[in-house]
Each structure stands twice: as structure tokens, then as C-alpha cells.
């Protein structure tokens, strides 16, 4: 359904006409209103902030406030020729320049430098609005700089940009800077409801909430999506229709997925994923939506947000008994999942197998879950498996950590080479919360004893938490112990090596290989921060 002839898009139709109508920018709007009222308007402003939050709109309102025939006044009349022309962008004294399409110095010269000294045609002030100012060329900035240094008294510059960091400091420092903020989802939803009402659009509140969230703080985007949704949804704008329009998962799918994940139910998860893949959803999109839902639940859990996102019991229809009440899910577990989802998103940018990334992220979360200890021992089991030791999960206590040892050796070696050699010949074993270094040679042990505090300090630094360190000599019988033996026979190098994990290519089992490729890095991180 095409919009009727002469249709004005909502974003233009509902452009605020005065400061009072501007949403979500109380600081910027308040400051400018005061400046006009107290006749202390600066010669140059720099409006910074994300797209679609009111920079150009406020620039025009300021222009009206300054040039209104009834003014200058903080609340321009909106009726006089100046106000009307400024609103229509046709005022001779308010020049708008889109720097994105006029980047060159010639443009600046033509539009600004050559006219800036001339008196205004009719109004009090000559006002230059330079949109997307960061796009100006270096030469254009230089030309502008001269004018900014000595602006004629009747001139006001308003530079607007989404990329403040690209404005040269010489320019920025000559402007008064106003920060525009992203509009909150609540304000966006309220505005959408308002506009829907005025337009006679029937819309479900949840549909508007979905649009608000998808707009990421931009009111222009929100109104644009409402425009689209109105034609997409025919009679009534419904949440499911909007989701479909945006290419989102259906609510039910999202909820079964979240339910399976948070309920740590692998079987339900497999079913939910299968459906999602059949539906043709894109893994990145799935992760983003899931993340946004889990983030909401997390924020509500820790009391940082109120709301009703926590579904009472998003049970998977396939396995209704399995998902626990979400009330039981701990914030720790939610944070753990959020980190995994973030990592998966980052990984998607490089990987060539998005489905695998999604599968691993979700199944990994379900399997590893809350039980970080258990998770660590699983990773250790993988590590052992990869280094040829097949010790099984039973050896969690006292398991050897060659990779940690290599790091410790490297750290100590920075200033004590011989001590590092001694440590290199030892084994490091996790011992509850602390660690044990077990030496085969008493000479090495002596040397370590003399430096025990220094070693413990390095180890704590590596692990990011204070740990206790015990030093001991290996009992003669154990010196040829099973672990050492296994090491010698293993195909990977037996000496502790900074790359104690073999490169993925050296691993035969393809599943393991992929697992290594995918979470090689996070394996280390998890251990460090445990
Ligand atoms: N703070 C706001 N209050 C009310 N409406 C707004 C606000 N911000 C944006 N809008 C709506 O969005 C439209 C576009 O806003 P505007 O052109 O001012 O954004 P902008 O910040 O200049 O964006 P860009 O950086 O993309 O140029 C306006 O016509 C208006 O309908
Ligand atoms: Mg703009
Ligand atoms: Zn006026």
C-alpha cells in the first residue's frame, strides 16, 4: 500500500516547532532558551549526538527564537514570516548547508565566507546551520576557522555532527558545545503512541515498544518505522507484524529459545534452534534478540530496571515441564550468558560458520552454565584431552596446569632467569583455591623457597586475584608419576610452552578442532578470572 499522494512522512510532519515540543533534550533545550532570554547567545554552537535526536530541529528552533519578529524570545511565535520561512527552510537569513554533500572549500566560501560580512536581509541575525559538519574538508575547516575567530556580531554558527571526534579541536574550541542524547525507549514509545493517536493509527502498545527498541534512540528512525508499519500491517499495527517487518523471530520462538537456554535444557534448545533454522532466521539476529531479552531480565533481576519482560514461565512447548521459573535464574548465570552472547556476536564477524557459532554459544551456556567450577573442569578435561592426557573429570583436584606454568615462567623470567628455569622443571597443581609448585630437584626447591613471595606475587598477578602458593618436593615415588609419563608420550611438546594448547590444526578430532578454534581464547580467560 503506497502512501497517498502528497503524503508527508511522520518524521517531517511531527518535527517540533518550539523548544517545549523537543523530547528528551532538557539540558540543550534549557540552555538555549536561557541564552535567548538573557541575550547571551554564543557566536558558534556545536551540537553533537547520535542521528535523529533533534540536532537540526533544535538548530532551526534556535534560529526562529533569534529571528522571530516578536523576539528574540525563547518561545518563537511560529506565525510571523521569519518563523514560517525558517520552518520551511526558505529564509534568506538562515542558511542551511549539508556538509555531507558540500565538503569542499569552494562551498564554504560561496555559502559562508562571501556572505558572512553582509548584513542580514531582513532579520536580526544571519544564521548558518552546518549539518554533518565533520564531513568538511581540511581546507573548508581552515576557511571556516578564520570566520569563527572574528565573527561579525550579527552572525550565529550552528554546527551539527554525529561524529564529534572528527571536528578539529581548533574549531571545536571556538564553539559552545551541546550534547544531544539518545532518546530513551520509554520516551520513544510515548511519542509513538502520541503520534499514532493523532494519526488515527491503531497500534498495540507492545508493537510500539518493539519499534522503540529497534530505533536505538533515534526518534527519526522510530517515526520512520511507524510509517512503514502502518502500511505493512494494514488494519492494526501488531507486535508480531512489526517483528516480521523487522525480520525478527516470532515472540513464541524467542521465548522457547530463551526458556530452553535459561532452563538449561539441551533437548528443548535443540528443538528451538531447529525451528529457528527452518524459519530461515539469521544467527546474528537471533543472538541480538536473545541478548536484548536476557539483558532485560538481568537488569530487572539486579534491580536496575523495572518492567515486566520476565515472562512468567516461558516454557518450551516441546518440553513443558523442563523450564524452571525464570525467577530462579541467578543474575550470575544471566551475566554469564550475556558475555557468551557478546563473544559470539564478535566471533560472527570473523567466522565463516555462523550456525556453528550460535550452536556453540547456546549449547555451551546450557552445558556449562552456572556452575563455573564444573565449567572449568570441563575445559580442563578438553585441555587434557588435547594434550594427550586422558585423565577424565575425576582429577579436578590437583590437576596440572601447564599453560599457567608457562605464563609463570615467562613472568618470572623477565628478571630472574635461573629461577624461571627452576620453575620450568616443576609442576604446578591447583590445590583448592591455591596452588602448589612441586619440584623434582631439591636445588630448584631451595631456590624457589628463597623467592617464594615473589613467585606468589607473580602468580596472583597472572590470575588477577591473591592466591596462596605452597612449595614442595615431589616424593621420590611420584617423581615418575603417571601425569609426567603421560606427558612424555603425548604427541604435543612436553616442556611447558607458552602455546601449551596445540594449534587447532594439530588436533585430529574435527569436533574438538572446531571447539578449539572457537573457544581457544575464552578458555584461558575463564581460568584466569575463576
Ligand atoms: N528530540 C526530539 N524531539 C522530538 N522530535 C524529534 C526529536 N529528535 C528527532 N525528532 C524527530 O526526528 C526528525 C529528525 O530530527 P533531526 O533532523 O532534528 O535529527 P538530527 O539529530 O539532526 O539527526 P541527524 O544527525 O541524522 O541529522 C524530526 O523531524 C522529528 O520528527
Ligand atoms: Mg540533522
Ligand atoms: Zn515568529
Descriptive labels:
binds magnesium ion, 10 strands, alpha/beta, Helicase, Ruva Protein, domain 3, 4 domains, Zinc Finger, Delta Prime, domain 3, 5-stranded parallel β-sheet, Rossmann fold, single chain, disordered C terminus
Structure description:
By secondary structure, this protein is α/β, with parallel strands linked by helices. The chain has four domains: 10-179, P-loop containing nucleotide triphosphate hydrolases (Rossmann fold, 3-Layer(aba) Sandwich), CATH 3.40.50.300; 185-245, Orthogonal Bundle (Helicase, Ruva Protein, domain 3), CATH 1.10.8; 257-370, Zinc Finger, Delta Prime, domain 3 (Up-down Bundle), CATH 1.20.272.10; 395-484 and 492-529, DnaA, N-terminal domain (GMP Synthetase, Chain A, domain 3), CATH 3.30.300. It is built from 23 helices and ten strands. The strands form three sheets. Strands 2-3-4-1-5 form a five-stranded parallel β-sheet, with helices on both faces. It has a three-stranded mixed β-sheet with strand order 8-9-10. Helix 9 packs across helix 10 and helix 14 (283-301) runs antiparallel to helix 15. The two termini are 57 Å apart. The structure holds adenosine-5'-triphosphate, magnesium ion (MG) and zinc ion (ZN).
Please give the structural blueprint:
Elements: H1 10-13, H2 26-37, E1 44-48, H3 55-67, H4 81-87, E2 94-98, H5 105-116, E3 126-131, H6 138-149, E4 155-161, H7 169-172, E5 176-179, H8 185-199, E6 202-203, H9 205-214, H10 219-232, E7 236-237, H11 239-245, H12 251-262, H13 266-278, H14 283-301, H15 331-348, H16 354-368, H17 372-386, H18 402-413, H19 417-424, E8 427-431, E9 434-439, H20 442-450, H21 452-463, E10 469-473, H22 482-489, H23 510-529
The site of zinc ion has 10 residues, from helix 4.
